[in-house]
UniProtKB/TrEMBL annotation, chain A:
Membrane-topology annotation of the record: Multi-pass membrane protein
Residue ranges of domain ABC transmembrane type-1 in the record: 99-288
Protein name: Peptide ABC transporter permease
Family per similarity comment: Belongs to the binding-protein-dependent transport system permease family.
Compartments where found: Cell membrane
Any one cellular-component term (Gene Ontology): plasma membrane
Alphabetical keyword list: Cell membrane, Membrane, Transmembrane, Transmembrane helix, Transport
Stored PROSITE patterns: ABC_TM1
Signal peptide feature range: none
Biological source species: Vreelandella nigrificans
Biological process, per Gene Ontology: transmembrane transport
Automatic annotation (TrEMBL), chain B:
CDD domains according to UniProt: TM_PBP2 (cd06261)
A cellular component term, taken from the record's GO annotations: plasma membrane
Protein name: ABC transporter permease
GO molecular function, one term: dipeptide transmembrane transporter activity
Organism the protein comes from: Vreelandella nigrificans
Superkingdom: Bacteria
Coiled-coil intervals: none
Family named by the database record: Belongs to the binding-protein-dependent transport system permease family. OppBC subfamily.
Bilayer topology annotation: Multi-pass membrane protein
Keywords: Cell membrane, Membrane, Transmembrane, Transmembrane helix, Transport
Automatic annotation (TrEMBL), chain C:
Keywords: ATP-binding, Cell membrane, Membrane, Nucleotide-binding, Transport
EC number assigned by the record: 7.4.2.9
Localization, UniProt: Cell inner membrane
GO cellular component entries: plasma membrane
Record's protein name: ABC-type dipeptide transporter
InterPro entries for the chain: AAA+_ATPase (IPR003593), ABC_Ni/Peptide_Import (IPR050388), ABC_transporter-like_ATP-bd (IPR003439), Oligopep_ABC_C (IPR013563), P-loop_NTPase (IPR027417)
UniProt record, GO biological process: peptide transport; transmembrane transport
Catalytic activity reported: a dipeptide(out) + ATP + H2O = a dipeptide(in) + ADP + phosphate + H(+)
Enzyme class, first EC level, given as a word: translocase
Molecular functions per Gene Ontology: ATP binding; ATP hydrolysis activity
PROSITE patterns: ABC_TRANSPORTER_2
Annotated ABC transporter domain residues: 18-268
Signal peptide boundaries: none
Length: 302, 305, 349
């Protein structure tokens, strides 16, 4: 700084903020992040407290009470706020329990695929050369496989269930993690602190886990939100086509499939679970978009 | 340029080979084929006869070679369920899926590129916000549910288009919208961000300094460069759409490849399934290869490599 | 001094080609308003080479963009007078401005590597300005482009026309940019640091080329640079900018002989000169930093770095005339300018 500060410079307000406080402020200022977080937190609470929140047993059939319309309908009632399905099960309760299935599958799939994709991507990015060629080849092969078709075929072979769907999607959706981890690691490989760690003779696992991974975590978290959303949509699709979560579990995709035959006269049987699905995925995408904005802006330091 | 095409083709071929191995293992995983072909009533002798007829008693590698050799000649064997050649089934259904794919891509491009360009030019305006809203909601919409909603609104309530069937072009409109909408957000975002980046470029300032008309600056100088990555994405998205046709064709009862695949899957008709998986994968590979070549044509800098 | 080869176009031959009075450019930024250009006055005679000198961030690029009408959309421009050959640039519509750009005033940019569109051939990019502004055939435009490429020293010009920018080196691209600027025979070319991004040997070639072409075509040039060495080589007249203001204008000779503003003197002391600067001695530097241009600036912009600063420097100095065509924005304009008639500093109580 200049030894003599002229008054006009001294008058400048100093915007000294720590990195953390700025990040926190960015998070709250980012509208899509805030909205996404709000919706997901509420849905998470709904999923956790499902047994206490659901007004009825989601599996209890009552054939005398089939296809009751929701409360806003003339013949609707508050006993079943969102009506009942073709077997007389309470729609709201099924919807609430369905939150658990979607969130569980979304998170576990992102965890499995994140583990696979990050490992492959970091190794390819760090070692380059032949390792990179092999990973790139795997990636191209994986991308050429039509996900829905392969997942459907495999699920029908093994037998559709929640476990099958989770494992299948986990094994299929690692591509974006690998792409992002690979390019992020490539940029880091020659960073000075990584070279310093190498020069100090740090073991490989230490360099990868302690130096590389924390620095690519931001980008990976953004990918993870996208993959959670993607997995939830794919689970719904597979369940809709009858090869995913099996009845009587209240998967939202399955609820739409079960309501399909009635949709012309009671459209709410598909609009309600469809809207729930849309809301959840939208919230996750908003969160992801917000996170990306925040991390990008944090990196640019303004 | 030719070395580049050759190298990419080589990679594409080996990826195709890997996928055919995977497809074939799918068939092997599906259990004792002779039993599924013969059906539940087949006697032990009949099953044995089938095993001999289909060559299932020979080693797996030999079976694979036979299958692959057939696949190269576009002979994918016989369907268990339809009792006809898989190739005939596929050829019969292919036009429907192709029409659907091309129409979806046309809709997606027709919406995303103009919207992306306008959103970039009028950054922060209501039209930009609307475009972003379409992008965000489009990515969140399950496409089978969107398809069903389209049927309820436009086929049942308004009766503008038929809800099902591929007899006339009208039957393709709703499924093409449902499938195309899914690809729109990514392409629109890419067009928008590409335009924003290009509009900041020095050569745009040069073009303006030459006094060129705004239209020339935007369409000749900016869009041409911004659209290069969109071309690659469009090819990839078309590949995804062909894969996604399983869902949309089932929802709209279109007699295409996707519906055939779903029928075959639910009936354990694996020769058909593996053929379709392989064909869609090949389409994807060819499309990405074409995208690379098209990129090289659009971007002179890539040609030098 | 002024070259009158293009007088037939002008309405008032005696008036300068371009006159700028009290030009201001404001840019909204996160912390307020950045006053990039803070009321500058200068003029350009027909066919002369005016050098606009200053360090980065002093507003010289913003000035050139304002003259061309290429400022970013958020930027606010206002001036008492912005007159180009009898035309008031301020009241023109964007369309009228674009009719002028490329035709009567052209620009050469700093970065030849990125200033050409990678997707089109050189021929395409050379011809489009001419075809936009004049009714000429494709063939005529092509011929003119080839002629100019040869003129700027590019061999095998006809083949080059079919090449893409990435196939050319930086120096060649800058030659193409110069040819492009000359396509419509403009009255004024603004060259914004056209040699900064080039190798030193190429720099000299490009400078010679510009100087030759300027004399041959009788084009007026505003040459923007931070390099006083360049100024000494090519300038007819010089305007020195500091913190968004023109602080001294003079003929090139006068400026180097009798620099009158302490900043100009400081700049000149920074240049090592063979014979005068003893080997091994430290090069001079001007202490301190340029004041922030965000928000209002009071008094002389240079006072925090000036060793002669006084109380009076808390007030804004006017532009003092020193000799004919030589003036400086300093309250003490200036005792060291020996031959000039020294005005008694206005005492503001």
């Amino acid at each position: 700084m200049a030894p003599i500060l002229s008054p006009q410079i001294a008058a400048e307000p100093h915007l000294v903020a720590t990195w953390q406080s700025r990040l926190f402020r960015n998070m709250l200022n980012n509208r899509s992040f805030a909205i996404g977080l709000l919706i997901i937190t509420s849905l998470g609470i709904v999923a956790l407290l499902a047994p206490w929140l659901a007004p009825h047993d989601p599996y209890l059939q009552n054939t005398a009470n089939r296809m009751v319309p929701p409360f806003w309908h003339e013949t609707g009632s508050w006993t079943h706020p969102l009506g009942t399905d073709r077997l007389g099960r309470d729609y709201l309760s099924r919807l609430i329990y369905g939150t658990r299935i979607s969130l569980f599958i979304g998170l576990v799939v992102a965890l499995i695929s994140g583990l696979i994709g990050t490992t492959l991507g970091v190794l390819a990015g760090y070692f380059g050369g032949r390792v990179d060629a092999v990973v790139s080849y795997l990636l191209t092969t994986r991308l050429a496989m039509p996900v829905v078709l392969v997942a459907l075929a495999m699920a029908s072979l093994i037998g559709g269930s929640m476990l099958t769907v989770t494992l299948l999607l986990g094994l299929l959706l690692w591509d974006r993690f690998a792409v992002v981890a690979r390019s992020a690691t490539q940029q880091l490989r020659d960073a000075e602190y990584v070279q310093a760690a190498r020069a100090l003779g740090c073991p490989l696992h230490y360099i990868l886990l302690r130096e590389v991974l924390p620095n690519i975590a931001g980008a990976l978290i953004v990918v993870a939100t996208l993959e959670v959303a993607n997995a939830i949509l794919l689970e719904a699709t597979l369940s809709f086509l009858g090869m995913g979560v099996q009845p009587p579990l209240p998967s939202w995709g399955l609820m739409i499939a079960e309501g399909k035959a009635y949709m012309f006269f009671q459209p709410w049987v598909i609009t309600i679970p469809g809207s729930a699905l849309f809301m959840l995925v939208l919230a996750i995408n908003l969160l992801g978009d917000g996170l990306r904005d925040i991390t990008v802006r944090g990196g640019r330091n303004e | 340029m030719w070395a580049f095409v050759f190298k990419r083709t080589l990679i594409a071929l080996s990826v195709a080979l890997t996928i055919s191995v995977l497809c074939f293992s799918l068939l092997q995983l599906s259990g004792d084929l002779a039993l599924s072909i013969g059906g539940p009533e087949a006697t032990a002798e009949q099953v044995e006869q089938i095993r001999k007829d289909y060559g299932l008693d020979r080693p797996v590698v030999h079976q694979f070679a036979t299958w692959l050799w057939g696949a190269v000649q576009l002979d994918f064997g016989r369907s268990y369920y339809y009792q006809s050649d898989v190739t005939d089934l596929v050829v019969e259904r292919l036009p429907v899926t192709m029409t659907l794919g091309v129409m979806s891509l046309a809709i997606a491009l027709g919406v995303s590129i103009p919207l992306g360009v306008v959103a970039a030019l009028k950054r922060g305006s209501w039209i930009d916000r609307m475009a972003m809203a379409i992008a965000v909601t489009g990515q969140a919409m399950p496409n089978f549910w969107f398809g069903l909603t389209l049927i309820i609104v436009f086929a049942v309530k308004l009766q503008w288009f038929p809800a099902a069937g591929s007899d006339s072009w009208q039957g393709f409109v709703l499924p093409a919208i449902a499938l195309g909408y899914y690809a729109t957000p990514a392409m629109m975002r890419l067009t928008r961000s590409g335009m924003l980046e290009v509009l900041e470029a020095d050569y745009i300032r040069t073009a303006r300094a030459k006094g060129l008309r705004t239209g020339t600056v935007i369409f000749k100088h900016a869009l041409r460069n911004a659209v290069i990555p969109v071309v690659a994405l469009a090819a990839v998205e078309l590949g995804f759409m062909l894969g996604g046709s399983v869902v949309i064709e089932t929802v709209f009862s279109l007699r295409g490849l996707g519906q055939l695949a779903w029928n075959a899957i639910s009936r354990n008709d694996y020769p058909v399934v593996q053929a379709i998986v392989l064909i869609i994968a090949l389409f994807y590979i060819v499309l990405t290869l074409l995208a690379d070549i098209l990129n090289a044509i659009l971007d002179p800098r890539l040609r030098a490599r | 001094m002024s070259n009158l080869s293009s007088t037939e176009r002008s309405t008032a031959p005696a008036s300068p080609l371009l006159s700028v009075k009290q030009l201001r450019v404001d840019l909204p930024v996160a912390k307020g308003t950045l006053h990039a250009v803070r009321g500058i006055d200068f003029h350009v005679e027909r066919g002369e080479m005016l050098c606009l000198v200053g360090e980065s961030g002093c507003g010289k690029s913003m000035t050139s963009l304002a003259l061309m009408g290429l400022l970013p959309r958020k930027a606010q421009i206002n001036a008492d007078c912005l007159n180009f050959d009898g035309i008031d640039l301020l009241t023109m519509t964007e369309h009228e401005r674009s009719n002028l750009r490329g035709a009567r005033m052209a620009m050469i940019f700093q970065e030849p590597m990125t200033a050409l569109n990678p997707a089109y051939t050189l021929g395409n990019q050379l011809c489009e300005a001419l075809r936009r502004h004049q009714r000429v055939s494709r063939k005529a435009a092509h011929d003119r482009a080839v002629y100019l490429l040869e003129r700027v020293g590019i061999s095998a010009a006809a083949e080059r026309m079919r090449q893409y920018p990435h196939q050319l080196s930086g120096g060649l691209r800058q030659r193409v940019m110069i040819a492009m600027a000359l396509m419509c025979e403009p009255d004024l070319i603004i060259a914004d640091e056209p040699t900064t991004a080039l190798d030193v040997t190429i720099q000299a070639q490009i400078l010679h080329l510009l100087r030759d072409l300027q004399q041959e075509f009788g084009t007026a040039v505003i040459f923007i640079t931070h390099d006083l060495g360049v100024v000494a080589r090519i300038a007819d007249r010089v305007a020195v900018m500091y913190a968004g203001e023109v602080i001294e204008t003079a003929s090139a000779q006068a400026l180097f002989k009798t620099p009158s503003h302490p900043y100009t003197q400081g700049l000149l002391r920074c240049i090592p000169s063979p014979g005068k600067t003893p080997p091994g001695s430290r090069l001079q530097a001007i202490p301190g930093v340029v004041p922030s241009l965000v928000g209002k600036l009071h008094g002389c912009a240079f006072c925090n770095r000036c060793d002669q600063a006084d109380e009076i420097c808390q007030t804004t100095p006017p532009l003092h005339p020193i000799a004919s065509g030589h003036s400086a924005r300093c309250h003490f304009a200036h005792p060291l300018a020996s031959s000039a008639q020294i005005n008694t500093p206005e005492v503001v109580s």
